[in-house]
Design a protein that fits this description.
There is one protein chain. The chain is mainly alpha-helical and about 100 residues long. It folds into two domains: about 70 residues; about 30 residues, no CATH class. Helices cover about 60% and strands about 5% of the residues. The chain is built from three helices and two strands, in the order αααββ. The chain has a two-stranded antiparallel sheet. Helix 1 runs antiparallel to helix 2. The protein is rod-shaped. The chain starts with a helix and ends in a 16-residue tail after the last strand. The mean pLDDT is about 85.
Length: about 100
Amino acid sequence: MTLLVIVLYLLPMAIAMWVFFDSQKHGYTFTQGLLWAIGVFFLMIVFLPLYLVFRNKRRRSSTARAQTPLPPSTTPCFYCGHPYPGDPKTCPHCGQDLKIL
């Protein structure tokens, strides 16, 4: 009987807690981590593999995002608000003169 309790309740609870804390380390919000943990607790066979796949995708996308160079500094146009890179004489979006001579 106690082995049945361990297998049916305590093991899924421990794995759900691991999923919750691991999701926090990987940048998920509190609510997202809680939802993953609840899903793993009730339907471990479905949600645990899904969590592991999405966790790896999130890790790969965050490392790829960290390796991309930052864009050059941009300045918003005074007239339309769209950002433009560099130091042009006219706004590339609305065509207004940006420099007064």
